[in-house]
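BUG: 3D viewer hangs when loading the predicted structure for this chain

Environment: internal workstation, default settings.
Expected: structure renders.
Actual: progress bar stalls at 90%.

Input used:
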Amino acid sequence: MTKKVAYYLGIDVGSVSTNLVVIDETENVIQKLYIRTGGQPIAALKTGLKAIKDKISGDFEIKGVGTTGSGRQLAGLIAGADVVKNEITSHAAAAIKAVPGVRTILEIGGQDSKIIILRDGIVYDFAMNTVCAAGTGSFLDRQASRLNIPIEEFGAYALKSTAPVRIAGRCAVFAESDMIHKQQAGYCMEDIINGLCEALVRNYLNNLAKGKEILEPVIFQGGVAANIGIVAAFERALDKKIIIPEHHDVMGAFGAAIIAKRHVAKEGIKTAFNGFDAADREYKTRTIQCESCSNMCEVIDISSNGLTIARWGDRCGKWSGGSRMVDVG
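Structure tokens produced before the viewer hung:
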């Protein structure tokens, strides 16, 4: 009887994208998937599970599952995760695998951005921006759409710039207004787009990297890393070479898969993976406003086939104490 190939699944559910990565025993990426969340994380996850299964060939078994991202708890419950980790830990794990000795991680996603400082393979410091839209992938998408330029070509325009144009970048609203003003003043598109790239990098470094020692190797990950205009602006601002890892767009899921593989091996446990059939089940979520005390906790209730399978969000454990939840680290 032929032995099944062992694979490990990483899932990153974010506000903009839902990413899945499958790795093998040597932590090489076998398959990856990037899809839009579209405000429906459960639907996106179900679609992702079906799609990633179809992409894997041969006789295999999933021996470990890890989840991360803003929807990691929900994804962990539906998929049956062995470990649930925050984005910082997951991105760091993937970066260290991709570029051994990495000391600085620049990450810009669809709705947030972060910087992670590593020393000797350990997270030493980090900062996150989850409030300001300026510098995020969704803001760049919006500007590319407004200018009627495919987002894939946005960075190439910036590289054609010959005359720097300064764009206000501390706020998404001000940045867009300044771009419109520069257009009306007759500046060429290439210079305006380059000015925007430089403004977003300037904003990122002033808000997240201020006071932090950025040492090489420096890697840039997240969907925005595909924008060569932003990469070039980072290299000019830092006067350092920026490394773009092969799987830059799914590094959170990649890291979650790596962590799951090592966790299962270390603990010697059988995976809690619910199987790809989990994508065929129906799930519903609702909010319960607890009024038992002054905390007034907003409790998330998730059910399947009319039965509550998990609750979380309370501080005292009244609601979540008896439900099956994966530890979050």
